Amino acid sequence: MVSKAKNLGLIILFVLILFLSLETLSAHQPRLDTGTAVSIENPIIVDNPEISQAFYGQLKGEPVYYQINSDTSFQLYVNLLVPTSPGQGGELVSAEVTDASGNTVMYLNGTNSTWTPYFEEFGGDYYLKGPEATLEVPAGTYNIKIFNSQNQGKYSLAIGKIEAFPANEAITALFTLPLLKEEFFAKPISTLFLEFVGIILALGSLMVLFTLLVKSRKSEEMTKVMLQVWGVIKPVLWYGTIIATVVWALVVYANPLNILGMVNSLILIIIIIMTWLVGSKTSKASFGKLPLISCSILVILWWIFAFLAISVI
């Protein structure tokens, strides 16, 4: 009982450390709107315009519009970026900010501006960073128009300077980043394939073990079956873990400054330690003494690793 409580306490502590570390990140809150039908009559609404946010979009023959509605005066910060992954196409973008009367209050000319390389640490992505401007504006409605001469190409619109990354935004970012990677940045298919081979071998064999452990709680006969099966799947579990680790090491080597990658590397280290621990306990298991909790923790860690790996590779 004490051992179960200790294991539960460890996983709770790990989750808390993980999310507390995410809260300390300095990054734009990502907003993905590439599939949204946008027009001047149906703009993308920007909430909390002083909070640092990055809106990812794509011009498809028409300008894209964003709208800010504020009851109080605020500091309006706007910055334009474009992704630099291969095959992006399109041109550099410009932005025009108008008030409710249609008067231009800010204009960022992407054509006549200097665009510089920029590395975004949280997602580990590369951009060209273009014009930016800051302006104190009164309360009211403001429309931001993103465009270029052909109205083609992908872009990122950064709004707000106040860095805020609470736990709920960190969780949202973890779900948004895989979609962002898929739509904005080229993905190395061979690396993904090899990584998933390792994950499938490791996680697949682990799920078999977990299922047998659950069934072994009420059956001594099933415990014997579990031990026999464990002798077969143990090498598969380690083969998968080794493949996933080697491929992940290559990914981290190619992009060592990726903060999300560092978090996933920490998870992988814990996975390796937990795999050894679960393997040791399973080999010595008997009816009534099963490593179910430690195996459950390992399953959860593998699922987290698999999901984050999609975001980084």
Describe this structure in words.
The chain has 313 residues and is α+β, with helices and mostly antiparallel strands. It folds into two domains: 29-164, Jelly Rolls, CATH 2.60.120.380; 187-312. It is 48% helix and 25% strand. Mean pLDDT is 81; it is low at 18-26.
What would you say about this model in short?
The chain has 313 residues and is an alpha+beta fold. A 6-stranded mixed beta sheet has the order 1-3-11-5-9-8. β8 and β9 form a beta hairpin.
Whole-number count of domains: 2
Tell me which oligomeric state these chains represent.
single chain
Proportion of residues in helical segments: 40-55%
Q: What is the CATH third-level topology name of the largest domain?
A: Jelly Rolls
Strand content: 15-25%
Helix-strand layout with pairing:
Elements: H1 2-23, E1 29-32, E2 44-46, E3 53-60, E4 64-70, E5 74-83, E6 94-99, E7 104-108, E8 116-120, E9 125-137, E10 140-147, E11 152-159, H2 167-184, H3 189-216, H4 220-254, H5 259-283, H6 292-312
Parallel strand pairs: 1-3, 2-4
Antiparallel strand pairs: 3-11, 4-10, 5-9, 5-11, 6-7, 6-10, 8-9
Helix pairs in contact: 2-6, 3-4, 3-6, 4-5, 5-6
Key features?
single chain, about 325 residues, alpha+beta, Jelly Rolls, five-stranded mixed β-sheet, 11 strands
